[in-house]
Automatic annotation (TrEMBL):
Protein name: 3-phosphoshikimate 1-carboxyvinyltransferase
HAMAP family given in the database record: EPSP_synth
Family in the record: Belongs to the EPSP synthase family.
Catalytic activity line of the entry: 3-phosphoshikimate + phosphoenolpyruvate = 5-O-(1-carboxyvinyl)-3-phosphoshikimate + phosphate
GO BP term, pick one: aromatic amino acid family biosynthetic process
GO CC annotation terms, alphabetical: cytoplasm
Protein function: Catalyzes the transfer of the enolpyruvyl moiety of phosphoenolpyruvate (PEP) to the 5-hydroxyl of shikimate-3-phosphate (S3P) to produce enolpyruvyl shikimate-3-phosphate and inorganic phosphate.
Cited CDD domains: EPSP_synthase
Length: 427
């Protein structure tokens, strides 16, 4: 198990880029696999999660060539190009791979077994299995189809209207992908808008997607046309560097070509509300996704209260936002974030536990955290618990902890941010 050592620092500076967006990289492979023609992807994230997606689609007979770590080519042959896999599909640690892929498999007339690692085995799959069954797919698994390993036999789908109880892009995307293969219309409504990369990328692949205030729908029987995809830098990875620069005295950094999709950039709004100096330079759109450069300067932060519709816009950034809150004057309150409990780890519990090891004042609540700051953190040993974002949040805290921080099980970081340690030292 790899160990990451972070010393207390001052004066981070540099002009860097972060690896490609994880959500968009997954979708580029999957949509390329079901499209007609060749999809070339530049800026692909070669993290463990996205490599799991490539592996699964290769096992279903889709030719995927890698011309270097961030450049791939997917040879799609339409929906019919996918074949019944001879082996079990292993999604590793990736919730996006399993939930979106189940939407594709739900319409394929063959049998597949899908599994993943210990973390995936604890994450709820009934949120997609139940509506897929309503559409006509046969999905079975542990605890009445709630947990992996899952088996699925697809085909014969009928469109449904599904008011999702959770704001989840994985649920929404799964059902839209099944809906494209169903008879009639499939509509998904969600309590607040989750990330909309699927809607944007399907449109770019020539699919008619109807969006309104309450939901999104697609008509069945549509095919995707291959196209080139340039993947922006992942704002969720940039968030670790943003917080690092904001809390480390005398720092100023620029992060180039970051994806600034309005359903994803809540972290920029909240860090600014906390008093963070973040300058955004827009750079246009890549494949329907807004992109820009971020210049971030050390700032005195103050506590903030967040909840409601903001949460889906920064759900993956909450562990590192909690680190920022330990350095902010006053109280930070995070509400309506119970979804954190079913991520790669229970991120409410684990974030609080790891930050407390460094002397932070963090209280767990049913649906979030209350953090008091500012606190001079003290060095200690932390553990990622196999969760990439917990590992990186602990590392960022190490930059302002007296004596530095050692992160155990740091190899988990490769799931979304290969090269994190090198980039942090480069700053
Ligand atoms: C993702 C959606 C989010 C997010 C995950 C990636 C996606 O999960 O937490 O890291 O790519 O669709 P939910 O949609 O389940 O909240």
């Amino acid at each position: 198990m790899a160990i990451l050592r972070i010393e207390e620092r001052r004066g981070l500076s540099g002009d860097v880029s972060v690896p490609g967006d994880k959500s968009i990289s997954h979708r580029a492979v999957m949509f390329g696999a079901i499209a007609q023609g060749t999809t070339r992807v530049e800026g692909f994230l070669p993290g463990a999660d996205c490599l799991s997606t490539i592996d699964c689609f290769r096992k279903m007979g889709v030719p995927i060539r890698q011309h270097g770590p961030t450049s791939i080519e997917v040879e799609g042959n339409g929906w019919e190009g996918m074949k019944e896999p001879e082996a079990v599909l292993d999604v590793g640690n990736s919730g996006t791979t399993i939930r979106l892929m189940l939407g594709i498999l739900a319409g394929r007339p063959f049998h597949t077994i899908v599994t993943g690692d210990d973390s995936i085995a604890r994450r709820p799959m009934d949120r997609v299995a139940k509506p897929l069954r309503r559409m006509g797919a046969r999905v079975e698994g542990r605890a009445e189809g709630s947990y992996t390993p899952l088996s699925i036999r697809g085909g014969g789908l009928k469109g449904i209207t599904y008011p999702s109880p959770v704001a989840s892009a994985q649920v929404k995307s799964c059902l839209l992908l099944a809906g494209l293969q169903a008879e009639g219309r499939t509509r998904v409504e969600e309590p607040s808008l989750s990330r909309d990369h699927t809607e944007r990328m399907l449109t770019a692949f020539g699919v008619r997607v109807n969006r309104d205030l309450d939901g999104v729908s697609v008509e069945g029987g549509q095919t995707l046309q291959a196209r080139d995809v340039r993947v922006p830098g992942d704002i969720s990875s940039a968030a670790f560097l943003m917080v690092a620069a904001l809390i480390t005295p005398e720092s100023q950094i620029t992060i180039r070509n970051v994806g600034l999709n309005p359903t994803r950039d809540g972290i920029v709004d909240v860090l600014r509300e906390m008093g963070g100096d973040i300058q955004v330079t827009p750079k246009g759109e890549w494949c329907g996704e807004p992109v820009g450069d971020l210049t971030v300067t050390y700032s005195r932060l103050k506590g903030v209260e967040i909840g409601g519709k903001m949460i889906p816009r920064l759900i993956d950034e909450i562990p590192v936002l909690a680190v920022a809150a330990t350095q902010a004057e006053g109280q930070t309150v995070i509400r309506d974030a119970a979804e954190l409990k079913v991520k790669e780890t229970d991120r409410i519990h684990i974030t609080a536990q790891e930050l407390r090891k460094l002397g932070a004042r963090v209280e767990e609540t049913d649906d979030g955290m209350v953090i008091e700051g500012p606190v001079q953190l003290t060095g200690n040993r932390c553990n990622s618990h196999g969760d990439h974002r917990i590992g990186m949040a602990a590392a960022v805290a190490g930059l302002v902890a007296e004596g530095g921080v050692t992160v155990d099980q740091a190899d988990a970081i490769d799931v979304s941010f290969p090269g994190f340690e090198a980039l942090l030292s480069e700053l």
